[in-house]
Structure formats: C-alpha cells, structure tokens
Amino acid sequence: MCMTDNSTLDFYNRHAAAYIKQTRQVDMHALYDAFVRQLPTDIKMPQHILDVGCGSGRDSFWFSNKLAMNVTAIDGSLELIKRNQAYYSISNIDWRYLKFEDIKHQGWQNQFTGIWACASLLHVPFNELPNMILSLLDTLVPGGTMYASFKYGDSERWDGNRFFCDMNENRFIEVLQQINLNNLVYETWITADQQGGRDIDWFNILLRKR
Predict the structure, then answer these.
(1) What pLDDT digit, counting tens, does each position of 164-173 carry?
(2) What is the dihedral of CA 82, 87, 35, 5, to 10 degrees?
(3) Which position among 48, 167, 184, 186 has the lowest Cβ density within 10 Å, counted as fewest Cβ atoms?
C-alpha cells in the first residue's frame, strides 16, 4: 500500500462537503496553543507552517488569518483543496494538491518553522511512518516543531473505505527507534475528541528539531 491508500482519498473526494461540515467548526484552540508555544522564536524569518493533510482548511485559516503566519496547505484530496481555495479565497494560504509520498520531491528542505499534521498521518501505514516523518522533519528549520495526532490504539484497521493507523506510547517508541535521530525532543499526551458524541481518544505528538 502507498502512503495514503487510494480508497481513503476517494472517500474524502466523494464526501468532501460532509467532511468539511463535520470538522470545520471543531474547537482546536488548546492544541493550537500547545503547538505555537513550541515554534522557534530566535530565527530571522517569518513563521511558515506546512499543514499536512489540511482537510477542511480550518487550521490553515487559523494560522494564517488569526496569527498572521505564512501557510502552505497540502492534501491528497483534490476536492478538498478546490473547496478550500473557493471558501478561503481572500486568504494568503498556498493551497496545494499533493500526496504525502510526494513531499520529499518538493525541494522544501529547511523551509518551514512548523509542521501541523492533525489527524492526517493516521492514514499512513505503520511501517511507512518512519520514512514519512523523516521526510517531514527534513523540511523543518533547526528548532522547528512538528505536531501530529492519531486515534489512540494499537492496531491498523479499516473503517468503511478508510484506512487508519492507530497510535499509542509503545508504537510511537517503535517509530522513534526507526527514525533514529539524536536531534529530536518530543512529548506526547492524550486528549478527548472535540467533535462531541464520539468515544474517541487522541494521541498527540510534538517533535522539536534541535
């Protein structure tokens, strides 16, 4: 299977409107604050965020409109990108249709101060996560920070037509051991689902590149 299975992307293309309606108004302020606090401040460049799997565009718009950060927002669903471009047409966000496995071909080394991968890398198979995360970390400036979140669990599974890779403390340690970088500082924590009506816990990760 490739980084993001085609049937998963097909799901988001077919159900883009419903997915956007379901997720666009979710309150993410606590996670924004945790992420922004870790962004580098001793750099001679504006903050530039790479939103990996931008979905409804909710988070990209917050970073761009509320915090005046530069944002490059990517998603493997062309339909989501088109809808975001139309809905947020007055924003300065750089919307790009891009699959995760093509990030490494963009020439983005040391370009971003932060990576926001909220509920997106959970569609990447577990055995492909180390290389995926390495390719993302390569785009960060020294001192840059990456945030990622996964549904809490210990397996890979299908939910309808979507593939999910769940994460917990032990599985994340396995990923870190395969990444094998000495210049990373990390923290993890668990939060409840913010959409309401769902009995889901989320495994949150912050990785900082020293």
Answers:
(1) 999 999 999 9
(2) -20
(3) 186
Residue 25 to residue 62: CA distance in whole angstroms = 11
pLDDT of residue 4: 59
Residues 6+ apart with CB under 8 A from 9: 76, 77, 99
Q: What are the structure tokens assigned to 48, written together? A: 């530039």
Tokens for 204, please give them.
């949150």
pLDDT by residue (tens digit) across 101-124? 999 999 999 999 999 999 999 999
> Of all helices (H) and strands (E), which one includes residue 207?
strand 201-209
Q: What are phi and psi of 100, to 5 degrees?
A: -55, -40
Q: Which residues of 88-105 are buried (b: 16+ CB within 10 A; e: fewer)?
A: beebebebbebebbebbe
* Record: fold of 6-209: Rossmann fold (3.40.50)
Residue 67's identity, in one-letter code, is L
Domain boundaries, given as residue ranges, for the chain: 6-209
Write out the two tokens for 92. Answer: 């300065």
